[in-house]
Amino acid sequence: MNHRRQLSPLSRVRPIAIAMALMAGGAGSALAFEIDTGNEDLSVRWDNTVRYNVATRVESRDSKIGNSALTDEGTYSFDNGDVVANRLDLLTELDVIYQGRMGFRLSGAAWYDAAYGAESRSNPNAPLSGIPSYANKVYSDYTKRFYRGPSGELLDAFVFNNFDLGDVPVRLKFGRHTVFWGESLFLGGALHSVSYAQMPLDLQKGFATPGTEAKELFRPLNQLSGQAQITDTVSVAGQYFLDWEAYRYPEGGTYLGPVDFAFNGPDRQFLSAGLGFATRGHAVEPRHTGEYGVSLRWSPEALDGTVGFYYRHYA
User: Fold this and answer.
1) pTM
2) What DSSP string describes 71-117?
3) Residue 2 maps to a domain
4) CB 19 within 8 A of CB 208
5) 8 Å CB contact between 70 and 268
6) What is the DSSP letter of 283?
7) Alpha-carbon gap, residue 159 to 3, rounded angstroms
8) Does the residue 166 lie in any domain?
9) What is the rounded distance in angstroms from the CA atom of residue 223 to the CA atom of residue 244?
10) Structural domain containing residue 198
11) pLDDT tens digits for 193-212?
12) What is the model's pLDDT at position 227?
């Protein structure tokens, strides 16, 4: 259930998942602070983005979905007219730069969604009422953390250094950060471009919170990365991972969850009256180190574009 390199299960959009999103202040409010350090070589910038989303369900549930043991909990989680998202998000970013070439960056995210409570819901009629994917119809700690909150997490935490190696400009980063090769930054492009599986994606946040930026969708990992501009038209880059994390998908039993027993939130799946429930075990994960990649990009003037060559090794 916890494999990063699989295509999104949300390729089909549930018909009842039509919502009207009203965003306060557009995509959100940004608060930026330039901190006076008293040293012209040292700059400190602290950016904060506050985003609020409220969404309402505007269609009644489809009986074919609501009467299925695989999908009833998601569609019964909210009724027609209910608020399905009442979410406040904070993205905070701190950049400390010395002489414009070295420094560090820290960023984190926090959230709270009042639309979700502690209990899951399912079809109230037998036998579906007695076979919920969450034990005792209580959301797991995982689902409560990422859907209701209040909670948060560390995103970026890295140091960097930009220098010249002879006549070649070099940029190095070490720590938790993101690198995505290719030109596609939209959600679909992240799934289908060369950057697919380069960094884990937070699709749960992407689908649930309109206005989420690419830097919040791509989840940072501990790694060493670098780039060198060999000539005016040729650059090389590389990265070596020291960490691994899975994709985040909309969890089963939530409004946008594709099936009730997936992915990391639900506790179990009902099999049959004779077999009972299959309980969720520990996720099978690959080695957390050993993945790496290299790239070569060529931008000749005659082409008026860029040709990229990429190699990726998976652990």
Assistant:
1) 0.85
2) THHHHHTS-TT-EEEEEEEEEEEEEEEETTTEEEEEEEEEEEETT--
3) no
4) no
5) no
6) P
7) 29
8) yes
9) 10
10) 9-313
11) 677 778 898 999 988 888 88
12) 98
> Two tokens at 55?
């969404």
Vertex 48: Cα angle to 46 and 53 (nearest 5): 170
| pLDDT of 14 above 60 | no
Provide the β-strand partners of residue 272: 276
Residue of higher predicted confidence among 315 and 118: 118
CA-only gyration radius of the chain, Å? 22
87 touches 208 (CB < 8 A): yes
**Residue recorded with tokens 């040709």:** 307
What count of Cα atoms within 13 Å lies in the side-chain half-sphere of residue 110?
A: 7
Instruction: Please identify which residue in the block is written with the tokens 């959009």.
Output: 13
* Confidence tier at 187 by pLDDT (50, 70, 90): low
- Number of domains composing the chain: 1
239, 228 contact by CB (below 8 A): no
Do the domain assignments include residue 23? yes
- Any idea what the Cα angle at residue 266 is, between residues 149 and 3, rounded to 5°? 95
Residue 145 resides in a domain: yes
Structural tokens at position 240: 């070596």
For every residue of 194-211, DSSP letters joined together read: TTTTTS-BBHHHHHHSTT
Q: What is residue 16's predicted lDDT score, i.e. its pLDDT? A: 35
Per residue in 96-121, pLDDT (tens digit) is: 999 999 999 999 999 999 999 999 99
Give the pLDDT confidence score for residue 181 in this predicted structure.
Answer: 84
CB 147 within 8 A of CB 256: no
Note the pLDDT of residue 2. 42
Report the 10 Å Cβ neighbour count for 301: 7
Q: Which residues contact 145 (CB under 8 A, 6 or more apart)?
A: 151
88 and 112 Cβ atoms separated by less than 8 Å: yes
**Backbone phi, psi, residue 128, to 5°:** -65, -30
